[in-house]
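User: Could you check the structure of this?
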Amino acid sequence: MPKVLILKPLHEAGLSLLAAREDIGLIRLDAPTPEGIMELIGEADVICIKNTPLTDDMLARAERLQAISKHGVGLDNLPMEALSARGIPVATVGDANAGSVAEHALMLMLALSRRVMQYDARARSGGYINDPEWPTHELSGRRLLLVGVGRIGRRVARLAQAFGMEVAAFDPVADQAAQAGQGIVYEADLMAALERADIVSLHCPLTPETDKLMDAARLAAMRPGAYLINTARGELIDEAALMAALPDAGSTLGGAGLDVFAIEPPQPENPLFASPYIIASPHSAALTVETGLRMARITAENALAALDGTLQPHLIANLEDIS
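Assistant: Sure, the predicted C-alpha cells are below.
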C-alpha cells in the first residue's frame, strides 16, 4: 500500500480527502523533527510538506518517494537539485494563496502610508488632530516598484492600479510580451528603479542571487520617505542594513512592512521590533481562512494525483528540470 507522509498538521479540508482513500496509508508527523523524519521518510511514496526543511540526507533515505506535494509555492526548504536529479516532481498549490498575499501586501502599504499604528495609539490615548510628526499619504499617484511579477506580483499590480498607483516592475525572467497590456512599466536596472519608487514590494523567490537582495547599497538607493514591503522571504533583506536605513538611525527610509524575517518564528529581541517605522506580521500573509482551505485541498489533491499518475503539469514547480 502506498503511503503519504504529512509533515505538520493539514487542515481537515485536505486531510479528509486523503483519509477517504482506503488504498493508501497516512503517516502524520504533526511536530516533525529531523530525527522523526529520518525514521519515517523511507516509508513515504509522497510527502505533503509546508515549511519543514527537507535535506539531502533525508532524501537519500526516501527510496520509495514518487513526488512531493508542497503546501505553498516556495521551494527554498527543499533540496531541489537532488529532487530534479532523481526525477521527483514537486507540486505546488499554484495561485491558491496569491490573492491573500497580494491583499496583505496592500494592507501593509496602506498601514504605513496612513500611519495606522501611530494613529491607533493616538486614538486610544484620547488624541484627535492629525500629528505632523506622522504625516500621512495617499496611495493614489505614488509609484510602486514590484521586484518580481509572478502570480502574486501580478495580483499586487492589479490591486495597486485600482488605488491609482503607477506600477513598475523589475524581473529579469518575466515574460514581458505575455504580460503586455497590463499597465506595468518594466525596468531594466534595479538601482535606477529603486531611486524612482515611492514603495518597493518584494515578490521574488529566495535563491543564491536574491539572498540579501536589499542590502545597504540598494536600501540607500531608495528615495527618502519610501517604504519597503516584504511578503516573500525574510532573507531577501539584510535586516541589519534595514535597521540602519530607518529614521531611528538617522537615515531617510520611510519605513517597512514585513511579514517575513530571516529567522522564523520572529524573535522578540529582533531590533526591528523596537522601531515605530516597522509594521510586522508573523508570516501570516497567506493564512486567511479561505486560503487555508484551498491550500490544504490542493495539497491533498496533488498527493493523490501523484499516486494516480494524473498530476497536472502546470502545478509541477520543477517540470523543466526533470522533463
